[in-house]
Amino acid sequence: MVKYIYHRILQSIPLIIIVMIFSFFVIHIMPGDPVRTMLGDRATEEQISVMNERLNLDKPITEQFVIWIKKVVKLDFGESICWSEPVLDIILKRIEPTFLLAVIGTVISVIIGIPLGVVSAKHHGDHIEKIISLLSLISISIPAFWIAIIMIQMFGVKLQLFPVAGYHNISSYGIGTALNDLILPGIILGIMNSGQIGRMTKSSMLDILKQDYLRTARASGMKENKVIYYFGLKNAMASILVVIGFSFAGLLAGAVVIEQIFNIPGIGNLAITSILKRDYPVIQGILLFIAMIFIIVNMVTDILCVAVNPRIRYEDE
Predict the structure, then answer these.
(1) pTM confidence score
(2) Which residues pair with 79 in a beta bridge?
C-alpha cells in the first residue's frame, strides 16, 4: 500500500505541472490585450503600463513563467485587481461555504443513491428497477435552476423551514447557523447527484452478483440479503467510491448555478464574479485550485479503492 501511495503521488506530479502551465497561459491565450480588457477602453497608456509592470507582462514570456512558478511554489498567486487582496486569501475566504455545501450534497446523494442502487440491483428486471431507473434519469437530467425554484418556493417561501439566500460564516455565527443556510441548496445538489451514484451502484452490484463465488454462497444456503448487502455491496464499493469522489470534487470545485441562485459566497460565485470583472489573477488562482482538487481527489479515491477492495491489483504493485 505504501509503495502504491508513493507511486500515485509521483504520477500526479506531471499533471500538476501541466495544470500550472495551462493556468499561466490562460491570460496569454485570451484574444486581444489582457490588460486593456481588464482596465477597460478608458484606461490611459500610463495605467496600462503600470498594470503590465505589476503583472510582469512587460517581461519575456519565459521570464514571466519562471517568476509565476516561483511565486506559486510559495503559495503566492498574486494580488486581485478588483479586491486588492492576495488571491490565496480571497479563495480561502470563499472555500468554507463551498466545502460545507459539497459535504452536505455528497452525504445526501450517498444516503439516497446507494440504497436505491442496491434495491434496483436486487429487483433487476422487474417494475421496481424500472421506476428507480426512471427516477435516477430524472435526477440527472433535471436543470439545477428548475428544482431550486421549486424547493425555494415550497420549503423557503411557503413552509419557511430554511433560508433561501445568503450565508453566515462559522466563526461569527456558529456551525448550526452555517449548516442551516446550506441545507436547502445541499439537498438540491444531493438529489441531482444521487441518480449518478445510484446508477453506478446498480451497475457495480449487478456485475458482482453474477460472480461464481456468490452463486456458490447462494447454493450453500446463505440468505439472499446477506449475499447482496455483505458480499455484493462490499465488493462494489470500489467503483462506487470513484463516483462519490468525483461528485465531491465537482461540488467542491464550485456548484456555480446553486451558489448564484442562493447567493452563497463560495468558489463558484467567486469564479463568475472574477470573470465578469476580468480579474485574471483570481481566475488563474481558481483554475489552479480547481484542477488541484480533482488531482488530489482522484489520488485519494484510488488509494481508498485499494484499501476497500483488496482484490484490486495494479501493475505497479
Answers:
(1) 0.81
(2) 86
Whole-number pLDDT of residue 34: 67
- The letter for the amino acid at 277 is K
Residues linked to residue 86 through DSSP beta bridges, in sequence order = 79
Report the C-alpha gap between 152 and 147 in whole angstroms.
Answer: 9
Helices (H), 253-279: 256-261, 267-276
The span from the CA of 247 to the CA of 196, in Å, is: 9
Position 31 scores a pLDDT of 64
Measured from the Cβ of residue 110, the count of other Cβ atoms closer than 10 Å reads 21
As a residue count, the chain comes to 317
Using CB atoms within 10 A of its CB, is residue 188 exposed (0-12), middle (13-18) or buried (19+)? buried
CA distance 174 to 234: 37
What would the pLDDT profile of 167-216 be if each residue is shown by its tens digit? 888 888 888 888 888 999 999 999 888 888 888 888 888 887 777 777 77
Spatial CB neighbours of 169, under 8 Å, sequence gap ≥ 6:
96, 97, 178
Measure the CA–CA gap between 33 and 22, rounded to whole angstroms.
Answer: 18
Q: What is the C-alpha R_g of the chain?
A: 24
